[in-house]
Design brief:
This protein is mainly α. It has helices at 7-36, 41-52, 59-66, 70-82, 108-124, 130-145, and strands spanning 86-91, 94-102. It has 6 helices and 2 strands; from the N terminus they run ααααββαα. The model has no long low-confidence stretch (mean pLDDT 91).
Length: 152
């Protein structure tokens, strides 16, 4: 006979299932948005990353963020440049490298798809207090650091 889980253990099981479901649904939503925009899901993830960046970023930063190989990253950036979504410019700090910038006007359609997803996510947060949102953010930030050098 299995032992009865404590209230905390039940919550942790529920939390684990909810987190797994959220991750799955987020991936599924991003994939669907990419299909709607007729681009590869990795292209849309890159556009999202560049759209949230405060300044142009190096290809190495993009590759690290997306967790792809340098060859895949080069093909990705070539494809996005061909679509007109990104531009490469000389890195003023290192003439041997380039920086990647998002052309928001050219990438308006993929950006709109991302904004629609974000609006749906934001709607879910309306019922939570500022204090509850702080707890949710803290948890998600700690989970996001798992597997890196930072401790949860």
């Amino acid at each position: 006979m299995a032992r009865k889980l404590s209230s905390r253990e039940q919550r942790l099981v529920r939390l684990g299932r909810a987190l797994g479901g959220m991750l799955h649904k987020a991936e599924e939503s991003l994939d669907a948005a990419a299909r709607e925009g007729k681009i590869h899901p990795t292209d849309l993830r890159c556009i999202s990353f560049l759209g949230s960046a405060d300044a142009p970023v190096s290809p190495k930063e993009i590759i690290a963020y997306l967790g792809i190989t340098s060859a895949t990253g080069t093909a990705l950036l070539d494809r996005l440049q061909r679509f007109g979504y990104v531009t490469r410019s000389e890195n003023p700090g290192d003439r041997r490298s380039v920086l990647i910038s998002l052309d928001r006007k050219a990438a308006a359609q993929p950006i709109q798809l991302l904004e629609e997803l974000r609006a749906q996510y934001a709607k879910v947060t309306e019922r939570y207090s500022e204090e509850q949102l702080d707890v949710i953010v803290d948890y998600l930030e700690r989970v996001a650091r798992i597997g890196t050098t930072a401790k949860p």
